[in-house]
Design a protein that fits this description.
Blueprint: E1 5-9, H1 16-29, E2 34-38, E3 49-50, H2 51-58, E4 62-65, E5 69-70, E6 79-80, E7 83-84, E8 93-95, H3 104-114, H4 124-128
Length: 146
C-alpha cells in the first residue's frame, strides 16, 4: 500500500504556516507521500472555494479540514472561509474541531478541556495571542517560531 495523500484545508496557502503544518502532519502520521496545504490566502472572500475542484486537482486519500473561522484581523479581515460542496467529496473528511464554525474562544475551550499539547499546534501563533485565556494549570510548551 502506498503512502497517504492528505489535502489539508487550513487558513494559509503559503509561508511558514503551511511548512509547519506539513512537518507536524508528517511527524504525527509517519511517512506521508504528499501533504497539500490549501488556504484562503488572497482568494475572493465573497465567493468561497469549491472543494470538489481541489479534489479533482490533488486527488487526496483524505481531506483534513481545520475549520471555517479566520481569527486574524490583519492583513485579511476577520470572517468565515466558505469551503463549498464538502458533502460532495469522494474522499473521507476529517475535522480538527467538532464544530467547524467554532470561533477562537470555543476552540480554546476545546483545547483546555482535552489537554492538548500546544507545542504541536499548527496555529499556535494565533493561540499565542490568546494565552491569557488558557487555564493556569494547562501544561503548554510553546515552540519558538522560526
Amino acid at each position: 500500500m502506498g503512502a497517504m495523500r492528505i489535502l489539508y484545508l487550513g487558513y494559509y496557502d503559503a509561508g511558514c504556516a503551511s511548512l509547519t503544518t506539513k512537518y507536524y502532519l508528517r511527524k504525527a502520521l509517519g511517512k506521508i507521500d504528499k501533504v497539500i496545504c490549501y488556504g484562503p490566502e488572497g482568494f475572493n472572500w465573497g465567493h468561497g472555494i469549491d472543494v470538489t475542484k481541489l479534489e479533482k486537482i490533488y486527488k487526496p486519500d483524505v481531506v483534513l479540514l481545520q475549520g471555517r473561522y479566520v481569527a486574524f484581523k490583519w492583513p485579511r479581515p476577520r470572517g468565515r472561509v466558505d469551503w463549498k460542496n464538502l458533502n460532495k467529496l469522494k474522499a473521507p473528511v476529517a475535522y480538527m474541531f467538532d464544530e467547524i464554525n467554532a470561533d477562537l474562544k470555543q476552540r480554546i475551550g476545546w483545547v483546555n478541556a482535552n489537554h492538548i499539547d500546544m507545542s504541536l499546534w499548527v496555529t499556535h501563533r494565533c493561540m499565542l495571542q490568546q494565552r491569557s485565556r488558557f487555564f493556569k494549570d494547562h501544561k503548554t510548551r510553546w515552540l519558538p517560531w522560526s
